[in-house]
Amino acid sequence: MSVPFNRFAAFADLTVAEQQALQELTGGPRFSYARGDAIRFEQEPVDRLYFLVSGWALTCGSLANGGRQNLKIHLPGDIMGAPSIALERSAEGIFAATDVTVCVIPLAKLSNVFTRLPRLAMLFFMAAQEEWVILMDRLLAAGRSSAKEALAALLIYLHERLLSPDKIPPSYFFLPLSQADIADYLGLHVVHVGRMFKALEDEGLISRDIRAVTLLDVERLRALSGIPARLLSRCASWLPPEI
Amino acid sequence: MSVPFNRFAAFADLTVAEQQALQELTGGPRFSYARGDAIRFEQEPVDRLYFLVSGWALTCGSLANGGRQNLKIHLPGDIMGAPSIALERSAEGIFAATDVTVCVIPLAKLSNVFTRLPRLAMLFFMAAQEEWVILMDRLLAAGRSSAKEALAALLIYLHERLLSPDKIPPSYFFLPLSQADIADYLGLHVVHVGRMFKALEDEGLISRDIRAVTLLDVERLRALSGIPARLLSRCASWLPPEI
DNA sequence: CGTGCACTTGACAGCTGTCAATGCCGGTGG
DNA sequence: CCACCGGCATTGACAGCTGTCAAGTGCACG
C-alpha cells in the first residue's frame, strides 16, 4: 500500500517518469515510532528528509526561554524536515503525535530528482512556496485573530486537508492531538484552548467526542477564522517541459 | 550597478553559468514605485516574481476581519512574490516601504533556469526553505514571546541582514519603517510598539534617532529575543553536480 | 483498586488593546 | 516669512483577553 503525493498531483498531472521517481524516493525501508517519540530533534545535522507513511506527526520549534510551538501538523503523504535543508543543523524537531511509520529520504536522492526531472523539481519548489503561504496564514491567525478565531482556523485547515484524498468532506473527523498539542500549535495555553473549544461548542459550531470533532457549520467556522480559501495553481503554462 | 544575490552565494560558490543565469533573470527593465505604493495586490493572477533592486519593501497579508500583517521585510537583492507561484491568485500583497526600484522576472524565465541548471534550482529550493525557517522564527516570536521580546527579535533580524553585504555589523542602522509598519509586522498595535521601543531604550538596549536605531547591546538583545542564530548550510555534499 | 494523564472549572493577575488627547515635524500655500 | 495641515509618535486611562495557579473530575491502564 503506497501513500500518494497528493500535493504534487495537485499542481500538474505527473508523467510516468515523475511518478516512478516519487515511488523511488519514498520506497525505502519503513521506521516506526510510538506516540510522543522524537523522529528528529532540533540541532541535529541535516542529511535527509522524512516521508510520513502513516499516523500524524508534528514539526516543532523552541525558544531559548523554553517556549515551544508546533509549526506544522503532518498527515500521511507529507514530506517532513525539508525546512532545515538550508541549515547546518536542524531548526525544527519532528515528533510523533500518534504511532507513526516514516520513510527516510537521503538528500542525495532529492538532488538526483532535481538533476533528472526539472519539472518535478519545480513542483517541489512550488510545494515549498505553498508551505510558506500556509505558515503565513498561521501568522495572520496568531497575530491578528482572537484565540477562538485561531482555533476555528485550525479546524478548517484540518477539515480541508482531510478532505483531499477522496473529496468527501468529513465534517466529523478524528483529532488525535491533545489540547496541549493544540495549545502549542496556536501559541495559547492549555486552559485557554479548553475554554475556546467549549465556546465553539456552546455556539453550536462544533461538537466533540473523545479525540474527535464534528464541524456543525463549516461555512460559519470559515467566516469566523477569516482565512480565505486558497486555490492552487494547476498545470501552469510556465512549468518546465515534461521529460 | 548590479545588486548581488547574496543568498545563493551563501549556499555555494556559483559557477560562471549560474552567475550569468542570475544576471539574466534580474537584468530586465527597472520599475520605480513611491513609498506606500502597491507593487502587487492580493488576489492578482500570478505570472511573475519581483527582484528588489533598491529600497525596502513589505510583503503583507490580510484577513477577512480587516486585520493585516507584514510577513516579510525585503531589502535590496531579495526576490519577492515567490510564495504565490503555487496559487492561482496571489495570497500576499507587496508594498513599497520606501521609494523602490524593482525588476520583473517572468516565471517562464525561472522555469528555464530549473531546466538548464539543476544545481541552481536546488539553491532556489533551499532559499525557499530558509524563508520558511525565518517565518517559523516569526511565529515563535509572535506566539511564545512578549511584545518586547518580539521587537528585540525584529531588531536582531534586521541587524543580521544588514550585516551580510560587507560583514561589518552596523549596530547603528537606518530603519525606514514607521511604527505602524512594525506593529503590522509584529502583530501588535501602534501604541504598544511605541511603549516597547521606549522600554528597550529605558533599559539601555537601544537608542533611537529619526527613522534610525542603534543597538547598544546586541548580545543582550539576542538573548532577550530567544531566537538562536542559524548557521546556513554551505557547499553541501549532496548538491547536484555543477554544470 | 490505585495511579497518571488529560480535560474542566474557577479566581485572579497581567499584558496588550482601545480610545482619546497632545506634541512634533515637514510640507504646502498665502 | 508665517499659518495651517496631515502624518507620525507619545502619553495616560481604562477595558478585555489571555496567562497563571490551583483544585477537582473522569477515564485509561496496570
How would you characterize this protein structure?
By secondary structure, the first copy, chain A, is of the alpha+beta class. Chain A is 41% helix and 21% strand. Chain A contains eight helices and eleven strands. Chain A has helices at residues 6-11, 16-25, 107-116, 118-144, 147-163, 179-186, 190-202, 218-225, and strands at residues 30-33, 38-40, 48-54, 57-62, 68-74, 79-80, 93-96, 100-106, 172-174, 206-209, 212-215. In chain A, the strands form three sheets. A four-stranded antiparallel β-sheet of chain A has the order 1-8-3-6. Chain A has a four-stranded antiparallel β-sheet with strand order 2-7-4-5. In chain A, a hairpin with a 2-residue loop joins strand 10 and strand 11 (212-215). In chain A, helix 5 (147-163) crosses helix 8 (218-225) and helix 6 crosses helix 7 (190-202). Chain A is globular, with a radius of gyration of 18 Å. The first copy, chain A, starts with 5 loop residues before the first helix and ends in an 18-residue tail after the last helix. The model of chain A has no long low-confidence stretch (mean pLDDT 93). At the A-B interface, strand 5, helix 3 and helix 4 of A face strand 5, helix 3 and helix 4 of B. Chain A binds a DNA duplex (30 and 30 nucleotides) through helix 7.
